[in-house]
Amino acid sequence: MAALRLALAQFDFPVGAVAANAAKVRDLMAQARAGHASLAVFPELTISGYPPEDLLLRPSFLAACQDAVNDLARDTNGLKAIVGFPHSQGEVFNAAAFLSDGEVMQITHKQALPNYGVFDDKRYFRPGRTTAVAVVDGVRVGYLICEDIWQAEPAAKAADAGAELIVVINASPWDDAKQTVREDILIQRAKETGCAMVYLNLVGGQDEVVYDGASLLVNADGRVAGRAPAFVDALLWADFDPSDRTLHPRDWPTAKDTSREATLYSALVRGVRDYIDKNGFGGVLLGLSGGIDSGLTLALAVDALGPERVTAVMMPMRYTSQLSLDGAREQAERLGVDYHVISIEPTYESFMTALSPLFGGKKPDTTEENLQSRTRGVMLMALSNKHGRLLLATGNKSEMAVGYATLYGDMCGAYAPLKDVYKTEVYRLSRWRNDAERRESGDMTAWAIPPAVIERPPSAELRDNQTDQDSLPPYDELDAILARFIEDEQSQAEIIAAGYDENTVHRVVRLVLVNEFKRRQSAPGPRVTTRAFGRERRYPITSGWK
What we know:
Elements (H helix, E strand, L loop, with lengths): L3 E7 L7 H17 L4 E3 L17 H16 L5 E10 L1 E10 L2 E7 L11 H4 L7 E5 L2 E7 L6 H9 L4 E6 L7 H16 L2 E6 L1 E4 L2 E4 L3 E3 L5 E4 L6 E8 L4 E5 L9 H19 L4 E5 L4 H14 L4 E5 L7 H14 L2 E4 L3 H15 L6 H22 L1 E3 L5 H6 L20 H19 L9 H5 L19 H12 L5 H6 L4 H13 L1 H5 L26
Parallel strand pairs: 1-2, 2-3, 7-8, 8-9, 16-17, 16-19, 17-18
Antiparallel strand pairs: 1-14, 3-4, 4-5, 6-7, 9-12, 10-11, 12-13, 14-15
Helix pairs in contact: 1-2, 6-7, 6-12, 7-8, 7-12, 9-10, 14-16
GO molecular function, one term: ATP binding
Protein name: Glutamine-dependent NAD(+) synthetase
Enzyme class: ligase
């Protein structure tokens, strides 16, 4: 029997863009047909985008999705296709339609509904009960939806129904531990069932979630036959040989750098680009302080959008160092962004003059420091409004965790690229980005983030000779404790038993718990760890549990 050719659409299908998504499917089906594919495969909830959330509660939205699928079926013209969509039958199902010969020939429903982490499938969908198998050019193809492959039973039912090949359509979000786990699951299912596995994943940013693509081919014996690059939109061609149940990728794109830092950086760039573009903003604005967080944020913004769409503003105060002034200017000039300097001193003094009658008799404290940050926030928001450029917040996960950030000050912004990136990771990413700049240019002195900014002691520069370590443990220690408490859900006793100072652990955990109210008011940002604040980690603000 001749090989079965598949066209796998590793692309972005934005949430709510029903007509545009259907048009993209139609165009990709035409490309698949021209490339002599017999089966075109599209991601989970292709038509609605993923996750559509409460759009699924609107009958008009569900009807539009169904109409789009019906129209696509009429355009198959000899091609067969698997397309994800929300299927309403009184109840709503996460579905995959098998299109062939001008009709919707089969519809299968997602059986395993995830309700953990970023997933809320049980809020919207009812579980399916059966596994579908379709015949394509004489090959029996089972098809499943995302979480189904993480359970043994759906794949086993496909194999029992005679499947030789199992296609899995996915909207699986990226985090830094995900890809190895995916491969292990697919290898296990292949060995259990004796079926080859095609794993097609969505790519693109959607609010706080970033989908990486990184689609996979696994042969029936469990060998990985193909790995698509992460964060790359591509129509992936593959041939399935039913004689030995093997898959063969055809000219798949490859990644230049597959290091952890390269993939994380790509995730952040994709998150920024898609958030800005999908929400219709012409560009972004950020406060460039001369520190490492804003320096990395500026590099991400330029890589995501191009320098012509980025504005950076330095807002010095009497405590701003010459190193900060020089670093911000040099980076802005080197990256070619629109750059401005606005002193906050006169505005800050006006605030202090207005407030002094009610501040009388009280010693200066963090109030005056926070007022500097809030002065900057007011100015940045005004510039954002006036110029229609979305404001990026520059804070990192370490700061968000312990509340080392000012509400309505440096927390101002509509999107926070580093929200789920620990400070120690900010350093690693900054050094990686400079190394990448040198490799690309061939100039060993090149940089995207000033080396002096990376190497300096971190400081908010809200008082003389201030450093972050005046208020916080060293970041290596802080981040290690935070990761154990947040990602691993370890108790304070467990963290102390692992060798960390008891007083430091109690202090850090207290800061995490009492600052939940701040995090609830923070901007969204791309989820890149296994326990991101906001959509994934949801603790009560008011709680007696310590």
